[in-house]
UniProtKB/TrEMBL annotation:
The protein's enzyme class: transferase
Pfam families: Aminotran_3
EC number: 2.6.1.44
Native source species: Micromonospora humi
Annotated keywords: Aminotransferase, Pyridoxal phosphate, Transferase
Domain of life: Bacteria
Assembly mode: Homotetramer.
Molecular function in Gene Ontology: alanine-glyoxylate transaminase activity; pyridoxal phosphate binding
SUPFAM superfamilies: PLP-dependent transferases (SSF53383)
Gene3D superfamilies attached to this UniProt entry: Aspartate Aminotransferase, domain 1, Type I PLP-dependent aspartate aminotransferase-like (Major domain)
Membership in a protein family: Belongs to the class-III pyridoxal-phosphate-dependent aminotransferase family.
Protein name: alanine--glyoxylate transaminase
Length: 433
């Protein structure tokens, strides 16, 4: 069966709103290290990691063996109505590294479910369905998670169980705050928060949910310290802070283990997903006990924290810490980030190279403006594939190339991918000059 046959079958039985990358979609059939192989036998260096999910890479012995040991018991699932040793051990580790005092952990299957659970907890704790969210954000595809997603392209329904008020993100390229320097943007963002609370809410807001770096939004972010400045105001009103760490967690930014730590603040609730399972469905929310316990009825996740996924999660977190992959993200991410900035410094089609560690993005615009150029972005995206490199796309306007390689990426692989990416950018810019 050819890839064309599989594509036809895909289109016949799966919904059209499920996107496929590339003009000629790929079927990936194998992976090793930081490389994947397609059905035609071609190998690619993977700089997107299943959307930042294959955090340790592919076919990692320690993770494979942990999963095989659990499979060998014959017990794949028991439900959380029974004690699960792997789940308890992973919860202890997550609580310990979360930075949240007296922490409790609830496991789910995805980042969407984790954010939904955090919203459930926060609204119960505060007895309010009012939520603050941030423009250009993404928090998932379920009902409430879509309700706090500030990106029209990912909001599949206008219906909302929450009352949401929107804050400016403080990003550097566009928006009302972009014209200000970093310190002034923080001050202006605080003024914006106070005005929103006074004019768009009844006062008893449950929580602010925010990503330290906006993932689907194109890796945009406000100045460091923004969360702390927001939290001073939130604390005046008893409003909780939820840090959505689905994409920023586990040391990916290099400088910190969690994105929130760049702001000098500790959130009340933290959501995690993606990389902790390294491809196995695993996510959750961790928070202060008094907050996470604020659920007045029975609630559990049938598959959340199941024996196989948490066996993988334990192996992933142990590997991450034992090999200090946060330091690797900082070191190897600097090769990529610095290299991209140097290579694109004179190109007026590149508005910004941004991000931290191994969470990097390049935004493309029309010459001499900040007008988004999604067409050029698509050409660069396809050219990277032609050169043997897989990257991601994103941004509010679809004009951002995103990179979130496995945290095990080597310096040589970083330079290899950088060369392919720079060649793709230069050749595509020249073609459109």
């Amino acid at each position: 069966m050819t890839t064309d046959d599989l594509l036809a079958r895909h289109r016949a039985v799966l919904p059209s709103w499920m996107p496929l990358y590339y003009a000629e979609p790929l079927e990936l059939v194998a992976g090793s290290g930081r490389r994947v192989t397609d059905a035609a036998g071609r190998s690619y260096l993977d700089f997107f990691g299943g959307v930042l999910t294959n955090m340790i890479g592919y076919d990692i012995p320690e993770i494979r063996e942990a999963v095989q040991r659990q499979l060998g018991t014959g017990l794949v699932h028991s439900s959380t109505l029974y004690l699960i040793r792997q789940q308890v051990e992973l919860a202890e580790k997550v609580a310990r590294v979360s930075g949240i005092p007296d922490a409790r952990v609830f496991f789910t299957n995805s980042g969407t479910e984790a954010n939904e659970a955090a919203l459930l907890v926060a609204t119960n704790h505060r007895r309010s369905h009012q939520i603050l969210a941030v423009r250009n954000s993404y928090h998932g595809r379920s009902y409430a998670a879509m309700g706090v997603t500030g990106n029209r392209g990912w909001s599949a329904s206008a219906l909302n169980p929450l009352q949401v008020a929107w804050l400016h993100s403080g990003e550097r390229l566009r928006g009302l705050l972009a014209r200000l320097d970093a310190d002034d943007r923080v001050e202006a963002a605080v003024e914006d928060l106070r005005e929103v609370l006074a004019t768009q809410t009844a006062g008893d807001v449950a929580a602010l949910i925010a990503e330290p770096i906006q993932g689907v939004g194109g890796f945009t972010h406000g100045p460091d310290g923004l969360f702390a400045a927001w939290k001073k105001v939130l604390d005046e009103h008893g409003i909780l802070l939820i840090s959505d760490e689905v994409q920023t967690g586990w040391g990916r930014t290099g400088e910190h283990f969690w994105g929130y730590q760049a702001h000098g603040v500790t959130p009340d609730l933290l959501t995690f997903a993606k990389g902790i399972g390294n491809g196995f469905a695993l996510a959750g929310v961790v928070g202060r006990a008094e907050v996470l316990e604020a659920v007045p009825a029975i609630s559990f996740s049938t598959f959340g924290g199941n024996p196989v996924s948490t066996a993988a999660g334990n192996a992933v977190l142990d590997y991450l810490l034992d090999h200090d992959l946060q330091a690797n993200a900082a070191r190897v991410g600097a090769i990529l980030g610095d290299g991209l900035r140097a290579a694109t410094a004179g190109l007026d089609r590149v508005a910004e190279v941004r991000g931290k560690g191994l969470m990097l993005a390049v935004e493309f615009v029309r010459p001499g403006t900040v007008e988004p150029d999604p067409e050029l972005t698509t050409r660069v995206f396809e050219a990277c594939r032609a050169g043997g490199l897989l990257v991601g796309k994103g941004g509010l306007h679809g004009n951002v190339v995103r990179m979130g390689p496995p945290l095990t990426l080597t310096e040589d692989e970083a330079r290899e991918g950088l060369a392919i990416l720079v060649d793709a950018i230069r050749s595509c810019v020249e073609e459109t000059a």
